[in-house]
From TrEMBL:
<feature type="signal peptide">
    <location>
        <begin position="1"/>
        <end position="27"/>
    </location>
</feature>
<dbReference type="InterPro" id="IPR045175">
    <property type="entry name" value="M28_fam"/>
</dbReference>
<keyword id="KW-0645">Protease</keyword>
<dbReference type="GO" id="GO:0004177">
    <property type="term" value="F:aminopeptidase activity"/>
</dbReference>
<keyword id="KW-0862">Zinc</keyword>
<comment type="similarity">
    <text>Belongs to the peptidase M28 family. M28A subfamily.</text>
</comment>
<keyword id="KW-0479">Metal-binding</keyword>
<feature type="domain" description="Peptidase M28">
    <location>
        <begin position="103"/>
        <end position="309"/>
    </location>
</feature>
<dbReference type="InterPro" id="IPR007484">
    <property type="entry name" value="Peptidase_M28"/>
</dbReference>
<keyword id="KW-0378">Hydrolase</keyword>
<dbReference type="GO" id="GO:0008235">
    <property type="term" value="F:metalloexopeptidase activity"/>
</dbReference>
<dbReference type="GO" id="GO:0046872">
    <property type="term" value="F:metal ion binding"/>
</dbReference>
<protein>
    <submittedName>
        <fullName>M28 family peptidase</fullName>
    </submittedName>
</protein>
<dbReference type="GO" id="GO:0006508">
    <property type="term" value="P:proteolysis"/>
</dbReference>
<dbReference type="InterPro" id="IPR041756">
    <property type="entry name" value="M28_SGAP-like"/>
</dbReference>
<dbReference type="Pfam" id="PF04389">
    <property type="entry name" value="Peptidase_M28"/>
</dbReference>
<keyword id="KW-0732">Signal</keyword>
């Protein structure tokens, strides 16, 4: 990671900026496959990747810096791992003041080529040391996520692309080169870029990027994940310090995580995260001691699982065909259920403040299912889409948990639109691939402009073993 050049916005200012914009994305009206369950990525494997990077540095003058043989050896090793499991890899060569550098791009076959989800990290170290935390950790974590996806047997709704950048330490040269050469149409196909730069700092913090307003849907998914694991987190405005900035400058949604560098951990941060107050998050930042010993395995293990979660989640995200969601007023009444069942119809008791399952915000939510017996529950609300709408979307946050096992969909939740006598299912969730972390999904309603329709959530549960589908913070917005 590059050193900070300019002061960051305060967390309050950044949050205020981002809160002024909507972060969901529109979706089409097809019914996608249910998202696969998030993986538990192997710390053993990631540690082995880091040991290999250490060995490469040791054999090549003690570093893996751009223009030095250790960098090219690192890239060749990562490429070989990806080629072996079926990725289509591309090496992009470019010149720097320190010599030739390279980007490595790996595409997983399949997925919608019009909707690309990218995950990346910079592969180069500084010349002073092997760069095992900065940024062997991010590079190894992204590599393991890519390898785990290849071995999972899952099919992605979106096209998955992974990247390892050269010459980040010289000013984001690799990611800037990639974006400068990418045709505009291909830039427009990238729905999300996630960046992981230093995720195993020895005196760690848990900082979530908060400097891209159009990426707040992914930022919120990341913070929800940490919250679900009982891990405190803080926002950080990374500005131009890492490779996400090359994507952000083109209006692409970005997010990422950072475990801390040369800045000092405060007493308050040490109290919530552990570690040593008054000491840098990474005392070996950009130094020769950034070796395989300069890693906090607990933080690394937590963060690689978060990275796996984000890849799995956005592999299935319905980004649709019309770009960013409308930001107009919410046409749904009582969208967060805080007034109980007011304005909603359906199963009595489905909208509840029961603490057995958490609301995403406030105290009330819609809890469908969780009975462990044959049952059907629903909630619905009628809404009119203006005839003048140029964009329209239904969005909501959902979390699920189940006692079922295996790959058979015993219990389901259908998201539907009823127009006259026609019922259209926008998406089906089931007990397969559940996630107890809230995630946001959106679906286009533009086909219904000028019509009054009913938005409906319909749950069906079989005779045994519960599945709970919990909804909160719904919206129908137009622009």
């Amino acid at each position: 990671m590059r050193s900070f050049r300019t002061p960051a916005l305060s967390a309050v200012a950044a949050a205020a900026l981002i809160a002024s914009l909507s972060g969901a994305t529109l979706a089409g009206t097809s019914s996608p496959a249910v998202a696969a369950a998030s993986p538990d990525l192997s710390l053993t494997n990631v540690t082995a990747h880091l040991q290999q990077m250490q060995s490469i540095a040791t054999a090549n003058g003690g570093n893996r810096a751009t223009g030095r043989p250790g960098y090219k050896a690192s890239l060749d090793w990562v490429k070989a791992k990806l080629d072996a499991v079926g990725y289509t890899t591309t090496v992009q060569q470019f010149s720097t003041s320190s010599g030739t550098s390279y980007n490595l791009i790996a595409d997983w076959p399949g997925g919608d080529p019009e909707h690309v989800v990218m995950t990346g990290a910079h592969l180069d170290s500084v010349a002073a040391g092997p760069g095992i935390n900065d940024n062997g950790t991010g590079s190894a974590a992204v590599l393991e996520a890519a390898l785990a996806w290849a071995g999972s047997g899952n099919s992605a709704r979106n096209h998955l692309r992974f990247a390892w950048w050269g010459a980040e330490e010289q000013g984001l040269l690799g990611s800037n080169k990639y974006m400068s050469l990418l045709p505009t149409a291909d830039k427009d196909r990238i729905d999300l870029y996630m960046n992981y730069d230093m995720v195993g700092s020895p005196n760690p913090g848990y900082f979530v990027y908060d400097d891209n307003a159009v990426g707040n849907f992914a930022r919120d998914a990341m913070t929800s994940y940490y919250t679900s694991k009982g891990l405190p987190w803080e926002y950080i405005d990374v500005q131009g310090r890492s490779d996400h900035a090359s994507f952000r400058s083109y209006g692409i949604a970005t997010t990422g995580m950072y475990s801390g560098g040369e800045t000092t951990k405060t007493s308050a941060q040490a109290q919530k995260w552990g570690g040593t107050a008054g000491q840098a998050f990474d005392p070996c930042y950009h130094r020769s001691c950034d070796t395989i010993s300069n890693i906090n395995s607990t933080a690394l293990d937590r963060n690689i699982d978060m990275i796996g979660h984000m890849v799995w989640l956005y592999a299935d995200q319905d980004f649709g065909t019309t770009g960013a969601p409308p930001t107009g007023a919410n046409l749904l009444a009582n969208p967060g259920f805080e007034s109980g069942a007011t304005s909603w119809t359906g199963t009595t008791g489905a909208i509840t403040s029961n603490t057995g399952r958490p609301a995403r915000t406030g105290s009330w939510k819609a809890w469908l299912g969780g009975n462990g017996s044959t049952s059907s529950e629903n909630i619905s609300q009628q809404v009119t889409i203006p005839s003048t709408a140029t964009t329209a979307s239904l969005s909501y946050w959902i979390r699920t948990d189940t006692a079922e096992t295996g790959s058979t969909a015993y219990d389901t939740l259908k998201v539907q639109v009823v127009s006259g006598t026609t019922t259209t299912t926008l998406k089906t969730y089931s007990n397969v691939g559940t996630s107890a972390t809230y995630a946001q999904f959106s679906h286009s309603l533009l086909a219904y402009k000028g019509k009054t329709v009913t938005v409906k959530f319909l749950m069906a549960e079989d005779s045994s073993l519960q599945t709970s589908f919990v909804l909160d913070d719904t919206a129908v917005s137009t622009g």
